[in-house]
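Table S4 entry, Histidine kinase.
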Amino acid sequence: MFVKLRKAVFPVHLFAATALIIWILFPLTWPVNMPSSYWIKQVAENLGYAVVYIINTAVLSPKLLTKRRLGFYIISVIALIILMVKYNGWMQDSLHIDAAMAKMFHPYVPDHHMRSAWTILMCLIVLGFSNVTTVAKKLQSHELAIQVSEKERISAELSFLKAQINPHFFFNTLHTIYALTDTDPASAKESLYTLSHMMRYVIYETKQDVTTLKKEVKFIEDYISLMRTRIDSSVEVSFTVPDKLRDINVAPMLFLPFIENAFKHGISARQASYIFVNISEAGGTLKFMVRNSIYKNTNKELDEEYGIGIANTKRRLDLLYPGKYNLVVNDDANTNEYLTILTLNTNAN
């Protein structure tokens, strides 16, 4: 809308300037040489119209018209037009235009009423152009205020969503390490060391709007490494990334809720389980895919927690990548497989 308003104002100014030049130079088309006093009057008269435009644009329109003080505006405009009529009449008399015109045109009868009517008409035209400009600028300011307000709202909402994701991740990871303290203290110690690196990422990188894909991939690798310590070796887990992956900017911890969801629902102690995570990038499109076996958990509280994580991520995608992402989720009850595919248009970021 901003661009449309700017494009609308420019033709108005261009048309007004062109009309003014034509009006000043129009007597050159007459088959007579006008006296110098006439040209002085033309310039002075149009300078008066310019003053009317400036006064209306800078004072009357923004302070009265746009604030709906219509009575004061009408009175001020009438006073301004009267002054302009008097000013043009004074210029006509001071420069003896009627006498000069009478020498050139026979017969010549001055029509003061027509001259006043023409001045009023010109003032109204100038005021119209001025008001169009003022209204357009007001709409621009209003649009800018809306955009700033919306940006602040989105920033606040994103901060809230990230604040929900970070503790959720931290407490779940600590729960995993806690389970190892009795069964495998050495692995618990190593997991704490890995967690310290991950928390550095969570604390510092998530303060920014974006991080690099390389850092995000390393974070996912560490998370999967931690999760491996709490699952049976029979569970097939893989994370594949091309050797040459363009290090583009992405929102931090954007993919984690989907991977958390896979570990939550994709593992069974009785049946064959698998979790396959893949990230690829080609042709300006980043593709993230998680494919896992699915076994519904009967713990409704945990289900609700992870549901909130996925919902928050979808909302973050709406805010950060509006119209630039595609999320496909397929829950196949026949094959007990859950498939998530997220594609991001990286050229637009």
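The chain has two domains: 2-146, 184-348.
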